[in-house]
């Protein structure tokens, strides 16, 4: 038996990583965002799991647009930090956990989620920025091995929110049946509302974001019922990344305890959000 001890939802805006890498976190434009992260980071530093699973999307950096798997998993020993055009971020490469990856793959395929497998994968800001949000000063290594689960949010037709939530629930069952690890953390990344291009470039919807932040804790089924079109209408064309929060949430219990949440506008052209949940909560019979 392995146990999911926490779930972390966080935006993965590349400039958040750049601000950290370039020593800009105390600048007035950035300080409030990082102040908002502080309680979550302090709690996470006291609650390091044996292994983490990070649900993210690649942005045509690790994998080009000719091949876009709907759902995929990495089974590698290590994942290199991708060069997104400015050189690789000066953060550690990621150590994986092939045994747990294979267990998840087997169990998810058996449950009808036919994941594509990456035996080799460079991870972009969708992956490394959430790791930096979790651990601002990793030193030589991130706090534990991390397994990538990749979701297509960039090419139509993206998986539905309901399918992402169901994947999370299957993931939770797969983790519970694993003998090899003790404790597991799950990250769901992306969002919040944003649109980077087109007629609505710069679109941000705080009303929707606050609804989402509340419902991801208390009513994830409501979010799972949102259509692709509704998500894009309400959250912007890239705000559909929020479906990855539902994979994380599906792997947690029905009832969770919110440790901390934060919301800040803007980070780049994006509404940045964070929500951290303790999964070690007594469940109703
Ligand atoms: C930006 C890129 C992202 O992948 C994202 O999720 C939010 C913002 C950006 O380039 O600003
Ligand atoms: Fe993104």
TrEMBL record:
Domain of life: Bacteria
InterPro entries: Xdiol_dOase_suB (IPR004183)
Domain Extradiol ring-cleavage dioxygenase class III enzyme subunit B: 9-271
SUPFAM superfamilies assigned: LigB-like
Coiled coil: none
Name of the protein in question: Protocatechuate 3,4-dioxygenase
Originating species: Pseudonocardia xinjiangensis
Organismal lineage: Bacteria, Bacillati, Actinomycetota, Actinomycetes, Pseudonocardiales
């Amino acid at each position: 038996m392995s146990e999911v001890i926490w779930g972390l939802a966080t935006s993965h805006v590349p400039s958040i990583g750049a601000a950290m890498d370039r020593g800009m976190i105390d600048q007035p434009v950035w300080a409030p965002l990082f102040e908002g992260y502080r309680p979550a980071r302090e709690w996470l530093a006291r609650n390091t799991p044996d292994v983490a699973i990070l649900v993210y999307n690649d942005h045509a950096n690790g994998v080009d647009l000719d091949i876009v798997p709907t759902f995929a998993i990495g089974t590698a020993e290590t994942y290199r930090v991708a060069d997104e055009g400015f050189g690789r971020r000066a953060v550690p490469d990621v150590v994986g956990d092939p045994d747990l990856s294979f267990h998840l793959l087997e169990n998810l395929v058996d449950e009808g989620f036919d994941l594509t497998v990456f035996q080799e994968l460079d991870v972009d800001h969708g992956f490394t920025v959430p790791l930096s949000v979790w651990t601002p000063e990793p030193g030589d290594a991130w706090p534990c091995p991390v397994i990538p689960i990749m979701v297509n949010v960039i090419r139509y037709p993206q998986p539905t929110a309901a399918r992402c939530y169901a994947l999370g629930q299957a993931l939770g069952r797969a983790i519970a049946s694993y003998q090899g690890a003790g404790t597991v953390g799950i990250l769901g990344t992306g969002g919040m509302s944003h649109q980077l291009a087109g007629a609505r470039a710069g679109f941000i919807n705080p009303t929707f974001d606050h609804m989402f932040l509340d419902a991801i804790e208390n009513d994830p089924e409501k979010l799972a019922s949102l259509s692709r079109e509704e998500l894009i209408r309400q959250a912007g064309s890239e705000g559909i990344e929020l479906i990855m929060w539902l994979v994380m949430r599906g792997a947690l219990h029905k009832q969770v305890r919110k440790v901390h949440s934060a919301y800040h506008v803007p980070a780049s052209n994006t509404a940045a959000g964070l929500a951290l949940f303790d999964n070690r909560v007594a469940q109703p019979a």
